[in-house]
Amino acid sequence: MWGPEYRDDLQYLRVWVSRVRRKLGAEPGEPGRIKTFQGIGYLLDVEPPAPPETVQPEPVKDEQSALIG
Fold first, then answer.
1. DSSP letter string over 1-69?
2. Tens digits of residue pLDDT in 5-59
């Protein structure tokens, strides 16, 4: 993409990819929607990651409320 004259300047590419990741909302240290494949390149995942499922806690009943209600 950058041409052969930039073949050894990988740090420039890494900085730009990290900036794009940040703009896409990735947390520091997380790949977000841009996946890295060492020695190959990068992949943009066009579908946003699914939000983590939240587990709703069961209502706690103590003996008093069980006897009353």
1. ---GGGTT-HHHHHHHHHHHHHHTTPPTT--TTEEEETTTEEEE--SPPPPPPPPPPPPP--HHHHHH-
2. 777 788 888 898 889 988 888 888 888 888 989 888 889 888 766 666 777 766 6
* Tokens matching residue 33: 């929607």
- Beta bridge pairs of residue 41: 37
Enumerate the H helices of the chain as residue ranges: 10-23, 63-68
**Single pTM value for the model:** 0.55
Burial per residue of 11-20, b for 16 or more beta-carbon CB atoms within 10 angstroms, e otherwise: eeeeeeeeee
pLDDT value, residue 61: 62
Name beta bridge partners: 36: 42
